Amino acid sequence: MSNDTVGKTLGVAAALCIVCSILVSTSAVKLKPLQTENKKLDIKKNLLLAAKLIDNPNATKAEILKAYESVEAKVVNLSTGEEVPEMDPEKFDAKKASKDPGMSVRINGDADVAKIKTRAKYAKVYYVKGEGGAVDMIVLPVYGKGLWSTLYGFLAMAPDTRTIRGLGFYEHGETPGLGGEVDNPNWKEKWVNKLATDANYQPVITVVKGEAPSGAQSKIDGLSGATLTSNGVTNLVQYWLGKDGFGPFLAKVRAQGGESL
Questions:
Q1: Which terminal CB of the chain, N or C, has fewer other CB atoms within 10 Å?
Q2: pLDDT per position as a tens digit, 15-33
Q3: Interatomic CA distance for residues 89 and 79, integer angstroms
Q4: DSSP string of 23-86?
Q5: Which of 153, 161, 147, 155 is CA-nearest to residue 232?
């Protein structure tokens, strides 16, 4: 019997598909722990870059883990600002929690300036400890809509909860050369030592259109040709520094003296 029959051809194709699917599935299962570890390492690296604890985007795993030794993660209740010691920061995933009705809250109307619709009831915060164990910096995870995507990043704050130490995004889909310039080191440097809030701790930091006025303490140069991304960055930073974001937590920090945490 000829080997070129339709039945045999389909049989060989089916067998090949089954073998390939088994190989792909097996590889995915075996590689998942490594992928998860690499993802966690990448987030740590980007946190350290935003906080200027490292300056090399290509830092080795050993360099990242060494620099991260000064960082202590906690989970806080966003409504009260209180730490939640029974929740393990290593296991808590705010992105997943924001999609769980029991772990999230819906943000209604004008309050949703970051256009995220829902957020988790809890969030991670990161204390960067200096000499003697005093808090030298507080790093906050922030996210919100740009033009094409949701931008995820870190905002590093001084213990006074007003002064910005750094900003960086580790995930977004904005247009390269336009909104994608949120990754430009020169633009990120413009955030350093700016005041995020006014004297009453209300968010005022703004990415303006064009160049910020000389000496402006709370204005950042806009991204050329990317007004909507610039507006999105303003909105997401102001949201997370406000009363519906980390505002209650930052008030607790000030009440406890910031550096004495």
A1: N
A2: 777 776 776 666 556 656 6
A3: 18
A4: HHHHHHHHHHHHHHHHHHHHHHHHHHHHTTS---TT--HHHHHHHHTTEEEEEEETTT--B-TT
A5: 147
Amino acid at 152: Y
The DSSP output letter for 242 is S
* 240 token code pair: 């997370």
Give me the long-range contacts of 38-47 (CB less than 8 A, separation at least 24).
42/170, 43/170, 44/68, 44/71, 46/153, 46/154, 46/168, 46/169, 46/170, 47/71, 47/126, 47/139, 47/154
Instruction: Report yes or no: 164 and 195 within 8 Å, Cβ to Cβ.
Output: yes
CA 78/CA 39 separation, integer angstroms: 25
Residue linked to tokens 């075996």: 30
Tokens of 234: 């303003």
Contacts of 252 (CB under 8 A, 6+ apart): 81, 82
Amino acid identity of residue 175, one-letter, is: T
